[in-house]
Hints:
The protein is of the alpha/beta class. It folds into two domains: 20-111, Translation factors (Elongation Factor Tu (Ef-tu), domain 3); 116-267, 3-Layer(aba) Sandwich (Rossmann fold), CATH 3.40.50.80. It is built from eight helices and eleven strands. It has helices spanning 92-95, 135-140, 144-149, 166-177, 182-185, 206-212, 214-219, 237-249; strands at 20-28, 33-39, 51-57, 63-69, 78-84, 103-111, 124-130, 152-159, 189-195, 229-235, 263-267. The protein has a six-stranded antiparallel sheet with strand order 4-3-6-1-2-5. A five-stranded parallel sheet has the order 9-8-7-10-11, sandwiched between helices. A hairpin with a 4-residue loop joins strand 1 (20-28) and strand 2 (33-39). It binds flavin-adenine dinucleotide and NADP nicotinamide-adenine-dinucleotide phosphate. Residues 1, 7, 51, 66-69, 81-84, 86, 89-93, 131-132, 135, 266-271 line the site of flavin-adenine dinucleotide. Keywords: FAD, Flavoprotein, NADP, Oxidoreductase. It is an enzyme of class 1 (oxidoreductase).
Amino acid sequence: MNDLAPVTDTAAPAAKTLPTETVTAVRHWSEHLFSFRVTRPRSLRFRSGEFVMIGLTGDNGRPLLRAYSIASPAWDEELEFYSIKVQDGPLTSRLQHIQPGDEIILKPKAVGTLVLDALLPGKRLWLFATGTGIAPFASLIRDPETYERYDEVILTHTTREVAALAYGEELVASVAEDPLVGEFAAGKLRYYPTTTRETSPVMGRITDHLRSGEVFERLGIPAINPATDRGMVCGSLAFNKDIMEILDGFGLREGANSEPAEYVVEKAFVG
Ligand SMILES: Cc1cc2nc3c(=O)[nH]c(=O)nc-3n(C[C@H](O)[C@H](O)[C@H](O)COP(=O)(O)OP(=O)(O)OC[C@H]3O[C@@H](n4cnc5c(N)ncnc54)[C@H](O)[C@@H]3O)c2cc1C
Ligand SMILES: NC(=O)c1ccc[n+]([C@@H]2O[C@H](COP(=O)([O-])OP(=O)(O)OC[C@H]3O[C@@H](n4cnc5c(N)ncnc54)[C@H](OP(=O)(O)O)[C@@H]3O)[C@@H](O)[C@H]2O)c1
């Protein structure tokens, strides 16, 4: 993630001074996952893939803020978020109970490394996600610019359980039917979901599929090559580390906003 960006904001001013937005929709995908939409502040400009700080007022009256990837594309008039429910998590133990009409705190400043500008031009874009790490990619695969820049966009999503794939499955299906993005994405967006702890059509960690070459075989494409392939990575620290090692092995280099290269990485959470 961007080293300059705060992940938690404990020294923030009293919550009443922070801007709020109104919840417009909430959807629960499983016992552990939900998504929600909020009104978008007029002042918020962002690039698809970036994150903002959102939260609620804590019991002590202080704001309780966490980093959240914006899951909706830059053109959407509302903002969408996709969230974990951590049983004893300070924020999500409460955030999971929000309802349409409720207010949440949202700081209208977006940052992040998972942006198209941080990559050198290429032909094939790989989006590697585990768990809620799919959120920034939910934004990018709904952005026409992604398809203007790449001939092929491959979204891989690895989760423990089948239920945790549902958000991504529905998202990919919706892109095809979307009046704005569908035409751009047609024949370009490919989806490679895998599960590790429950049976599904393709089982196992994406890292193992990359090392064995199974993913290239199943998709009918050549192995990752620095001349053509670009990558974005969003998962746990261990996942990011393993994927980076694999991408380095294929000859790709990590890039940043200030110095574009062949792949970029951001943590889906801290811990
Ligand atoms: C750049 C960035 C972007 C993020 N974007 C999202 C997002 O789009 N959606 C989202 O749900 N979370 C996201 N997070 C994580 C988020 O900031 C919070 O950690 C999460 O909402 C839980 O908050 P909490 O206060 O309930 O628990 P915390 O005290 O923040 O976390 C408690 C523990 O739960 C685990 N955990 C926290 N978040 C996750 C997660 N997302 N997936 C798996 N395990 C987790 C970790 O082990 C952590 O130590 C992001 C984090 C970063 C750094
Ligand atoms: N049923 C439950 O109780 C349940 C279900 C979901 C989440 N949770 C809670 O939510 C938290 C986050 O869970 P999560 O499932 O979203 O995140 P996660 O533990 O990071 O796992 C998400 C997916 O990433 C894979 N993965 C993890 N490390 C990897 C690596 N180094 N390389 C390749 N793949 C890797 C996992 O495979 P592996 O399975 O092989 O590790 C899993 O398929 C957990 O700490 C847990 O407490 C609980």
